[in-house]
Write a structure and sequence with these properties.
heterodimer; A: 467 residues; alpha+beta; 3 domains; 7-stranded mixed β-sheet; B: 123 residues; Jelly Rolls; 6-stranded antiparallel β-sheet; 3 helices; 6 strands
C-alpha cells in the first residue's frame, strides 16, 4: 500500500508519463470506469454516464462493484434509509424517462399529517396528486415473509445494467495507484485498473477511511446517528390508520429535530433525526400520545420488526474529487436530513456530465462538478438555520398554535395561497431547496399572517356565545 | 388506482389540458394512452396518440402562449404533473435534463415533415 506516499508518488507517476497531462485527462473509446457502490448514487452515475457516452458516440465500459444483493431482506439487502423519493425527484425522473413502477413504489404519498403537542392537521397537495414515492431500499425488513415489492436499489441497478453497466458482486477493500491510474482490489482477489473511479459508498462504509488517507484533500463528511425502524401492520391496517399520508412530528423532545412515520406496503417506517439519537430518546418518542394515536392501540411498539442506527451526513466532504476520482452521493455531498436519493441523483449526474463533456481531471471536477455540490452544501447551511428555528418553536406552544391555526384555515379555504402549508410541505418532504423555503417564510405576507394567527390562536376560547 | 401508483388517474374522455387555456406545467404519462386534438373550424382533429413515458404540455413551459391543443384520456390514463418552476430551475442547473425534451421535439418535427411530404405528394 502506498497511501502515505500518495501525493508525491501520484504526481511523480503523472509527470513521468508523457501521455498524461492532468489538465487533459478525459474519457475516450475503450475507457474503463469503476463505480464502487451500487446504491442510487452509483446506479444513477452509471446510467447517466453511459447514456451521455452513447449520445456522444463514446464507447466506455462501466463496472459497478456492489457486494450486497438487494433482492434479499435486511440486513443483507438493506441500505438503511427512510425510503422516500421526494416530489421533485419523482418529477425529474419522469422527465428523464424513468417512471417508477408500482412494483417498486409501495405507496404513493399525497398528503401529510403534522402532529404537534397542540394538535394535528392534515396537509394535502394543491394538485391532489401522488408525487412522493415510499419504497424499500432492499427487499424489506428482517422478518418479511413474502416479498411483494422490488427493492429501489435493485431496480436502479437494473436500469444501469440495461444501459450496459456490468455488475460485479464483490466488495472492494483496497485502493492504490498504478501508473497514475486508480487500481482497486476486491475481497474476492480481483485486481483492476481504471481510467476513472466513482466512489458511491455510503457514510457507513469503512472504505472512506482508506480514501481519506490516500486521496489528497479528501475529507469524508461528518456524521450523526439516526434511528430507523419498521413495523409490520399489514396493508389493511395501514390503509385504515395512515392511508396515503406521511406523518411528521414536531414534538418537544430534547435532541429530536424531526420525526416521521412513512406508510409503505405491509410495513411502516419510523425515522428519527436529531442529535445523537439514543434509547431514551427513542422511548420517549414512541411513548408520546401523538405517536401512539397513529398506531392500533393493541400494537406493541417494542420490539419493532427491524431497526438500525445508521449514520447520516451533517456536513459534506471536503474536496470530493481528484484526478480520475470523484465522490458522489453521501460520500460527497448530500442534503441535510432530507432527499438523500435526490442529492445522489444530482451529484451523480453532475459527475457523469463532467466526465463525459469536460474531462476527468481534478480541475475539471472542481470547475464543473463542485458547483453542484456547493449549491447543496450552501443550502444545507440554510437548512440548519431552519431546523434550529423549528427546534426552538417546538417548545413554544403559542407559535405551535399559530402554525396549527394558519394551516387549518389554509386547508379549509380552497384557492387561497397556502403559504404555511406549502412551506412546511417543502421543508418536511425535501421537495424544494431550503433557501426557497426560508425566502417564503421571510415573505412579509407570510410573517404578517403567522403573527396574526399566533395572536388569535392564543386568545382564550369564548364558549357559549352562540345560541 | 393501486397504492403504489404515482400521479393522478383521468377517466376515458376526460380532458387533461384544453386548447387555448393558460398552462404552467407539463405532463408525463405514467400508464395508458391520451390523444392530442386540435380544434379547426369547429372540428376536433386528432394529431397524435401519446403513450407511457411520452410527455405533453412542454410548449407552455418554454413559450408564453396558451395550450396549442387539447389532450384527452383514451380509456383510463395515469399522469404525473411536472411543475414549471422546479423544471426550469433544474434545467438551468443541469442542461442535460433537456436532452429528452429536445429528443421528443425532434421526433415530432420529423413526423410532421413526413406528414407534410405525404400531403404535398398527394396534392
Amino acid at each position: 500500500m502506498s497511501f502515505g506516499l500518495f501525493s508525491s508518488s501520484f504526481k511523480h507517476c503523472l509527470l513521468s508519463r508523457p501521455d498524461v497531462n492532468p489538465s487533459n485527462l478525459k474519457l475516450d473509446n475503450g475507457s474503463r470506469v469503476a463505480v464502487i457502490g451500487g446504491g442510487p448514487a452509483g446506479s444513477f452515475f452509471s446510467y447517466f454516464l453511459l447514456d451521455m457516452a452513447q449520445r456522444s458516440g463514446i464507447d466506455v465500459q462501466v463496472d459497478i462493484y456492489e457486494p450486497r444483493d438487494f433482492s434479499h431482506a435486511a440486513p443483507q439487502g438493506c441500505n438503511m434509509c427512510g425510503g422516500i423519493i421526494s416530489e421533485s425527484l419523482v418529477q425529474l425522473l419522469a422527465v428523464e424517462g424513468i417512471n417508477l413502477p408500482a412494483t417498486v413504489v409501495q405507496r404513493g404519498i399525497d398528503s401529510y399529517m403534522l402532529h404537534m403537542s397542540v394538535g394535528s392537521v392534515r396537509i394535502g397537495t394543491p394538485l391532489h396528486e401522488k408525487r412522493i414515492a415510499a419504497v424499500h431500499r432492499g427487499a424489506g425488513p428482517r422478518d418479511i415473509k413474502e416479498v411483494k415489492w422490488k427493492s429501489l436499489d435493485g431496480y436502479l441497478q437494473w436500469l444501469a445494467s440495461d444501459k450496459g453497466a456490468h455488475l460485479v458482486c464483490d466488495r472492494v477493500d483496497h485502493f492504490d495507484w498504478k501508473d497514475g491510474r486508480p487500481q482497486i482490489k476486491t475481497r474476492g482477489g480481483l485486481v483492476q485498473e481504471y481510467d476513472l473511479l466513482a466512489v458511491a459508498v455510503g457514510v457507513n462504509s469503512g472504505l472512506l477511511k482508506i480514501f481519506r488517507d490516500s486521496v489528497s484533500g479528501y475529507e469524508p463528511p461528518r456524521v450523526t446517528k439516526t434511528y430507523i425502524c419498521e413495523y409490520h401492520l399489514g396493508q389493511e391496517t395501514i390503509e385504515k390508520y395512515m392511508g396515503s399520508s406521511m406523518h411528521v412530528f414536531l414534538l418537544s423532545i430534547p435532541r429530536l429535530e424531526f420525526a416521521a412515520i412513512i406508510p409503505k406496503g405491509d410495513y411502516v417506517t419510523v425515522c428519527l433525526l436529531g442529535d445523537d439519537i439514543d434509547g431514551p430518546l427513542i422511548k420517549s418518542f414512541l411513548e408520546s400520545p401523538e405517536v401512539r394515536r397513529c398506531f392500533p392501540p393493541d400494537l406493541p411498539l417494542d420490539p419493532p420488526s427491524c431497526h438500525c442506527l445508521p449514520h447520516i451526513n451533517v456536513t459534506g466532504a471536503t474536496q470530493p474529487f481528484a484526478d480520475r476520482i470523484v465522490f458522489i452521493g453521501d460520500s460527497g455531498v448530500t442534503r441535510l436530513y432530507k432527499d438523500g436519493i435526490g442529492a445522489a441523483y444530482r451529484t451523480a449526474k453532475a459527475a457523469a456530465s463532467t466526465a463525459i463533456f469536460q474531462g476527468i481531471s481534478a480541475e475539471n471536477f472542481r470547475q464543473y462538478y463542485w458547483p453542484a455540490c456547493e449549491r447543496i452544501a450552501i443550502d444545507n447551511r440554510i437548512g440548519k438555520i431552519i431546523f434550529a428555528y423549528t427546534g426552538v418553536m417546538q417548545k413554544l406552544r403559542h407559535d405551535l398554535r399559530g402554525i396549527l391555526r394558519m394551516v387549518s384555515k389554509e386547508q379549509m379555504k380552497d384557492g387561497c395561497n397556502p403559504r404555511m402549508s406549502m412551506a412546511l410541505w417543502d421543508l418536511f418532504t425535501g421537495s424544494a431547496p431550503y433557501r426557497e423555503v426560508l425566502l417564503r417564510m421571510l415573505n412579509p405576507v407570510f410573517v404578517g399572517r403567522f403573527i396574526w394567527n399566533v395572536v388569535v390562536g392564543s386568545l382564550p376560547i369564548k364558549r357559549g356565545r352562540r345560541p | 388506482m393501486e397504492a403504489g401508483d404515482l400521479g393522478r388517474v383521468y377517466k376515458d374522455g376526460e380532458v387533461i389540458v384544453r386548447q387555448g387555456e393558460a398552462g404552467d406545467c407539463m405532463y408525463v404519462i405514467q400508464a395508458g394512452k391520451a390523444e392530442v386534438l386540435q380544434e379547426q373550424n369547429g372540428r376536433n382533429m386528432r394529431l397524435a396518440v401519446l403513450e407511457e413515458k411520452d410527455f405533453f404540455g412542454e410548449m407552455a413551459l418554454f413559450e408564453r402562449e396558451v395550450r396549442s391543443a387539447t389532450v384527452r384520456a383514451l380509456a383510463e390514463v395515469r399522469i404525473l404533473t411536472v411543475d414549471k418552476r422546479a423544471f426550469l430551475r433544474r434545467i438551468q442547473e443541469d442542461p442535460t435534463l433537456a436532452f429528452r425534451v429536445v429528443e421528443q421535439l425532434c421526433h415530432r418535427v420529423r413526423r410532421l415533415n413526413e406528414e407534410l411530404a405525404r400531403i404535398k405528394a398527394g396534392t
